[in-house]
Design brief:
The protein has about 220 residues and is of the alpha/beta class. It has two domains: about 120 residues, 3-Layer(aba) Sandwich (D-Maltodextrin-Binding Protein, domain 2); about 90 residues, D-Maltodextrin-Binding Protein, domain 2 (3-Layer(aba) Sandwich), CATH 3.40.190.10. The chain is built from nine helices and eleven strands. The strands form two sheets. The chain has a six-stranded mixed sheet, with helices on both faces. Strands 8-7-9-6-10 form a five-stranded mixed sheet. Helix 5 links the parallel strand 7 and strand 8. The protein is elongated and about 60 Å long. The model has no long low-confidence stretch (mean pLDDT about 95).
Amino acid sequence: MSTDPRPLTFAVPKGRILDEALPLMARAGVVPEAEFHDKKSRALSFACEAADMRIIRVRAFDVATFVAHGAAQAGIVGSDVVEEFAYSDLYAPVDLDIGHCRLSVAEPAGAAEQGGPVSHLRVASKYPNLTRTHFERLGIQAEVVKLNGAMELAPGLGLASRIVDLVSTGRTLKDNGLVETSIILPVSARLIVNRAALKTDERVAALVERFRALVTAQAAA
């Protein structure tokens, strides 16, 4: 048992990953109280069935920040977020094999045929670091316009000529007249932990082992 009297804080993201993560979390012993599932609840912090644990539900990008700075000791988030921030104090020891999608570049259909090589692009994305790095590898300077949503509107309204965003089925791109032109990063959900907490709190190490065992068993099934 841990000698730390404080509850272990586990951060989860709002949105698409959470629905897939909840059954896995339950098998790992991370079970939130009933209020967590109440659509009307405005709470962000919840008790767990395990008395020494609580869950906070925040935006995906904030999951990484809470864990990296030690405000939460562990959490679940997409590998896109892990790669974008590249926090030195954040460790992602387990690929949970859920939340699969990809981080891709997209542009208006037919745009590739209309122009030649470019050295500078304006790109709309909420991933400025991954976007700039990707285009730098291609010898292109990318000016990133940071948006947190409605990325698909940017090319049609003249805000940017390309977008970099998460793609699952590609339906949203197609519905907005865009085509996927390249994949920057395949994405899946990861268990993340604070490096210092992993070394000092045995509950964190035990949590990592439970999730790792579950994923291994799931892959073998």
